[in-house]
Amino acid sequence: MKADASSGQHSLQPGSESKEEPFEAAIFVIDKPAGPTSFKMVSAVKRALGLKKVGHAGTLDPFATGLLIVCAGRPATRLISKMMDGQKEYLATLCLGIETDTFDPEGAIVQRSPVGDLGADEIEKCLSTFRGAQFQVPPIYSALKHQGKPLYHYARQGISIVKEPRPVFIETLERTDNCQDLTGENVQLSLRIVCSKGTYIRSLAFDIGRSLGCGAHLIELRRIRSGCFTLGNCVPGVELLLPDARQRLLAKALSVDDLLNLL
User: Fold this and answer.
1) Fewer Cβ atoms within 10 A, N terminus or C terminus of the chain?
2) List of residues 6+ apart from 68 with CB closer than 8 A
């Protein structure tokens, strides 16, 4: 994934490994803060539990926050692919008038355009074209593999690898702001999105900006649901830094049997 966001955001530092009794398996819902990568969150869970076999069911970019499903122990990690099949729900904020090469705040600005006057009806007409079944081109800054290496490996070297469009389904795409007209500078558009797995919200933001004629990039993203998982019984990511992180995790652990009953 891309490098961690700069100072001012949470940063996970290594801590001492747990000396508790061996832990077998469980599933945890982590509320990832902005800053650390998904890999760092997994590493923090590894340290807290004293396990090597830990993985996550769906990456969040460093700037993004919200629901990250972490599976600890082989009986749990074997179920990751099943957990990734469900719908995802996000709260997203777009900055209109500015495009970046990564489609998000971590990239370099490549174009600025006047937003002009966007009426609420015009915005709704634009959003309606992105609902339902469609094909989406994955961003060149993504973890999709090409010849064994992620696309961002090539993009960072100035090599653009464009993948074939992939089918996605966007069930819900609606404004969460006051749904009024938009005009001026530093204009933001806030959305709630319910979509199929494999949907790139960064690409959706870019495409919406192009459709509106002013360009856009994603500046905030929060995942609030993934399949049957919500943030209702999550472990705040910052708590993984605390000395009692193991106890905090186990207090909200979901067993493999409980998970199988949900899937």
Assistant:
1) C
2) 29, 30, 31, 32, 38, 41, 56, 58, 60, 223, 237
Overall size of the chain counted in residues? 263
Give dist(CA 142, CA 136) in Å, integer.
13
pLDDT band (50, 70, 90) for residue 149: confident
pLDDT digits over 69-83, tens only? Answer: 999 999 999 999 888
Spatial separation of the C-alpha atoms in residues 97 and 233, rounded to whole Å: 38
Question: Which residue among the candidates 61, 85, 101, 121 is catalytic per the annotation?
Answer: 61
Domains of the chain (ranges plus CATH)? 26-85+227-262 (3.30.70), 88-225 (3.30.2350.10)
Known catalytic residue at 207: no
Half-sphere exposure of 252 (CA within 13 A, CB side): 21
